[in-house]
Write a structure and sequence with these properties.
Elements: H1 8-12, H2 16-29, H3 36-48, E1 53-57, H4 60-70, E2 78-81, H5 88-95, E3 99-102, E4 125-129, H6 140-150, E5 153-157, E6 165-166, H7 170-173, E7 191-192, E8 199-203, E9 217-221, H8 224-234, H9 255-264, H10 268-286, E10 299-300, E11 306-309, H11 313-322, H12 352-360, E12 361-364, H13 372-387
């Protein structure tokens, strides 16, 4: 048997006709730039993310860059983030001229550890970028509290977390209730990723829970001023056209991508559910074998990745490889040890939990279309791979 890491064929097949029709409509209209589909998608994503505004952009990476630009973060500024994330999070900080400052992770959730945050704040700190890693929100109450105290912006890197939820105050509400789980959270009390900070950055890269047919992204916010500035920055800072008060870039989302996303968007909740069901199936059968994902009971996890953890990671990975089971290491090198960040002067040992995670984690297939045969095959081979 073969189980790919992600099966975009299985996702595409049932919606093929509608996707092609929606692309055809874009070609027929020739409104490749700023077609009406952009606004329609922005409204849908804003509502879904419980935000007043959503601005389509060219990628998840550009969503972060344009947010930093809108906040006037540049040379001399520092921005705090996690070393255990996709490169873009820190790369964007560098690209606006600021300095990335890392804070180690909580080894249970792999998210930034807010208890270590405050000691890294200086008078140059301008923002914090928590990453909702693998689809579980970071500890936003504590992060927002610190941000408020020091007057910092909070940029959620929600690239992996569209539809994830966090219950504000949940850390206290759910304390001492061992049987509490997020199904008990009264509806409307938990908040979606993208509405938890000043801005939320989303990616529609094909491997995310909501993916387009190329690159695409979105910024969400409840801040009218930031929304307006991001909209202007998206088109070279021009308003009105050809008059530039500020310097932006070409950060637009293509109409074709919006058209494809409009077809896929109504299926997103169903896909989340498929991933959550798969995760439950894995959890029950793997919990005594490897470290399974740890989800805080006040979080709703959307499982962009299902990441397991073991000291025998390399052997396990080799066994999965030989068994034709797709897998990936997110992430093999913590960002503070990336060659390009050598100038920051970090060394091995600086962020022990992130470093340990890079040696022990492996993500296995979790996409919604997995069959029971495939899941059983993955489980069987994780168990066998550990025993070797
Ligand atoms: C995918 C991803 C990005 C970048 O998104 P792109 O659309 O590929 O530019 C940024 N941060 C995280 C955590 C991601 O997973």
């Amino acid at each position: 048997m073969k189980v790919p890491m992600l099966d975009l064929n299985a996702q595409y097949e049932p919606i093929k006709e509608v996707v092609l029709q929606s692309i055809k409509e874009v070609f027929d209209s020739k409104r490749f730039i700023n077609g009406p589909q952009i606004k329609e998608l922005e409204e849908k994503i804003a509502e879904y993310c419980q935000c007043k505004y959503a601005i389509g952009v060219s990628s998840g990476t550009d969503a972060i860059i344009i947010s930093l630009m809108a906040m006037d973060i540049s040379e001399g500024d520092e921005v705090i983030t996690t070393p255990f994330t996709f490169f873009a999070t820190a790369g964007c900080i560098y690209r606006v001229g600021a300095k990335p400052i890392f804070v180690d992770i909580d080894p249970k959730t792999y998210n930034i550890n807010p208890d270590l945050l405050e000691e890294k704040i200086t008078e140059r700190t301008k923002a914090i970028i928590p990453v909702h890693i693998f689809g579980q929100t970071a500890e936003m109450d504590k992060i927002n509290e610190i941000a408020k105290k020091y007057n910092l912006y909070v940029i959620e890197d929600a690239a992996q977390a569209i539809g994830s939820e966090y219950l504000p105050g949940g850390i206290n509400i759910t304390q001492n209730k061992s049987n509490y789980n997020r199904n008990n959270i009264p509806q409307g009390e938990s908040k979606r990723a993208g509405s938890l900070g000043d801005v939320g950055c989303f990616s529609f890269f094909p491997s995310k829970n909501l993916g387009c047919c190329g690159d695409g992204g979105m910024v969400t916010t409840n801040n009218e001023e930031l929304a307006e500035k991001i909209r202007i920055l998206r088109a070279h800072g021009s308003k009105p056209k050809y008059y530039h008060k500020i310097i932006g870039g070409n950060f637009r989302l293509d109409t074709i991508q919006a058209a494809v996303l409009l077809v896929k968007f109504p299926l997103l909740e169903k896909w989340h559910k498929g991933r959550q069901d798969n995760a439950k199936y894995y959890d029950d059968r793997l919990k005594d074998v490897v470290g399974i994902p740890y989800i805080e009971n006040y979080n709703r996890m959307i499982y962009n990745q299902y990441t397991i953890r073991t000291k025998n990671r390399d052997k396990l990975q080799q066994h999965l490889q030989e068994s034709n089971i797709g897998n990936a290491i997110y992430y093999p090198v913590p960002l503070h040890l990336q060659e390009c960040f050598a100038y920051l002067g970090y060394k091995a040992g600086d962020y022990p939990e992130a470093e340990k995670a890079t040696k022990e984690v492996v993500s296995i297939p979790i996409y919604p279309e997995l069959s029971y045969e495939q899941k059983d095959y993955v489980i069987e081979n994780v168990i066998n791979g550990i025993r070797i």
